[in-house]
Amino acid sequence: MFTKHSKNADGAWKDFVHELKIYLQEWIKGLEVETFELLCDLIINDQMKRRVPTEIKEHFIDEWPKFKFPELLSEKLDQYGSVQDMMKKKTDFHDHKGKYSSFKEKNSAHVRGVTEEPKQGNFEKYKSSKTEDSFDRKKKVKC
Question: Which among 64, 65, 86, 135 is placed 20 to 30 Å from 121, CA to CA?
Answer without folding.
Answer: 135
